[in-house]
């Protein structure tokens, strides 16, 4: 029994598992058989798709035997290919699927579906504290994707950032370069702010084309503020200038008289 390895990424699209793996070797078959293009000489035999992990029968011919409406079976007569379609693929769909022909003994072929779930992570802390005028680089990394994202969009709050409208701002996309963990399949997206201002505070979202968005909070502190800057664990990703503590001025000085105690014999 041969198995076909098939990798797929989760998303709002569908994938198909096709029965197309077993050689005939030029041998004559009196009944149904499998070759490199599908089922031949099927006759009145039925074709079923089974999920191997729980032996759940998904479809028999074109009929579906699972409550999950994402599963559906198709048959193309001119090439004899039976296809199991899974819409809106999820991580739990990963595993081995078997296509079975109702002969005696049973004829079958297996497909191994690998579902890849991309993830977006921050490089550095999710809260950043910087002094006004400091340069800041916000970075996110996309890991676990079969292909690098075609783009990464940054948002300030709900507003998309267009760097051409912001002086001293720029974005950068590094595809296929090793990240801090040495993963060469990762993509790093950077938002670079040369000189931060108080109004630049807020939530910034990194939104790749092929993985979920992630948010970092930026807190820009004026030099005269009484708060202190918190140095980020990101270290070399951006410079943070510490802000000193300001003391509250004493406006009134009140003298409290000390009573004198007199003793008599």
UniProtKB/TrEMBL annotation:
InterPro entries: Ig-like_dom, Ig-like_dom_sf, Ig-like_fold, Ig_sub, Ig_sub2, Zig-8. One of its GO terms (cellular component) is neuron projection membrane. SMART domains: IG, IGc2. Gene3D superfamilies: Immunoglobulins. One of its GO terms (biological process) is synapse organization. It holds the Pfam family Ig_3. CDD domains: Ig. Residues 118-217 form the Ig-like domain. This is Defective proboscis extension response. It comes from Culex quinquefasciatus. The lineage of its organism: Eukaryota, Metazoa, Ecdysozoa, Arthropoda, Hexapoda.
């Amino acid at each position: 029994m041969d198995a076909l390895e098939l990798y797929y990424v989760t998303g709002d699209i569908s994938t198909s598992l096709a029965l197309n793996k077993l050689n005939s070797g030029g041998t004559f078959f009196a009944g149904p058989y499998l070759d490199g293009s599908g089922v031949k000489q099927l006759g009145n035999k039925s074709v079923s798709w089974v999920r191997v992990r729980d032996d759940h029968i998904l479809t028999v011919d074109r009929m579906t035997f699972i409550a999950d409406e994402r599963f559906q079976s198709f048959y193309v007569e001119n090439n004899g290919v039976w296809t199991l379609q899974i819409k809106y693929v999820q991580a739990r769909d990963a595993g081995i699927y078997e296509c079975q022909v109702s002969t005696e003994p049973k004829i079958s072929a297996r497909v191994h579906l690998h579902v890849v779930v991309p993830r977006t992570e921050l490089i550095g802390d999710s809260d950043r504290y910087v002094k006004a005028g400091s340069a800041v680089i916000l970075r996110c990394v996309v890991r676990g994707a079969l292909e690098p994202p075609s783009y990464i969009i940054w948002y300030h709050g709900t507003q998309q950032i267009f760097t051409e409208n912001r002086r001293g701002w720029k974005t950068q996309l590094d595809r296929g370069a090793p990240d801090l963990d040495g993963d060469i399949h990762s993509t790093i997206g950077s938002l670079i702010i040369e000189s931060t201002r108080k109004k630049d505070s807020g939530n910034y979202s990194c939104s790749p084309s092929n993985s979920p968005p992630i948010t970092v909070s930026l807190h820009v502190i004026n030099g005269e503020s009484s708060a202190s800057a918190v140095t980020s664990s990101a270290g070399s990703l951006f410079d943070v200038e510490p802000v000193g503590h300001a003391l509250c001025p004493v406006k009134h000085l009140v003298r409290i008289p000390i009573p004198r105690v007199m003793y008599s014999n």
